[in-house]
UniProtKB/TrEMBL annotation:
This is DUF306 domain-containing protein. It holds the Pfam family META. Keywords: Signal. It comes from Robiginitalea biformata (strain ATCC BAA-864 / DSM 15991 / KCTC 12146 / HTCC2501). Residues 34-134 form the DUF306 domain.
Length: 143
């Protein structure tokens, strides 16, 4: 009986301990403090230029705050992000501006929620992947 009681307490503590806002962890080799501009998005039938005719999404990671922020091609956003090694996880974005946007914004935000890995290739492009499948690719934005 004591064993079951102790096991129950341990499981409850583990469950509550796993809740919370994701945070970025420094020292992972991740290219923080760089603004990235989207140049590829997977899973759409519409040409990239058609998804983002006026403005391409941009993304900046802030290690100190554990957030990613930018513009989704139309509206601004900020979302919690957890980066550890080559793993990445975006939390739900907070409040953003509320302009009407085309399908590109929703596609971009949905892809951010799906990715779980990152890599920077030899050309300096940041790719966000789902397993081994490239979902989003970014180039360094011009200053």
């Amino acid at each position: 009986m004591k064993y079951n009681y102790c096991l129950s307490i341990i499981l409850c503590l583990a469950a509550f301990g796993s809740c919370g806002t994701p945070k970025a962890t420094g020292g992972s080799g991740f290219p923080y403090a760089t603004t990235w501009e989207l140049d590829f998005i997977s899973g759409t039938r519409i040409a990239f230029e058609g998804l983002f005719p006026d403005r391409k999404p941009v993304l900046t990671f802030n290690a100190g705050e554990g957030t990613a922020s930018g513009n989704s091609g139309c509206n601004g956003y900020t979302a919690p992000v957890e980066i550890s090694g080559n793993r990445i996880e975006f939390g739900q974005p907070g409040p953003s501006t509320m302009m009407y946007c085309g399908p590109g914004e929703n596609q971009f935000r949905e892809m951010l929620q799906k990715v779980n890995r990152w890599e920077v290739n030899s050309n300096g492009k940041l790719t966000l992947l789902l397993g081994d499948i490239p979902m989003l690719r970014f180039k360094k934005a011009s200053p």
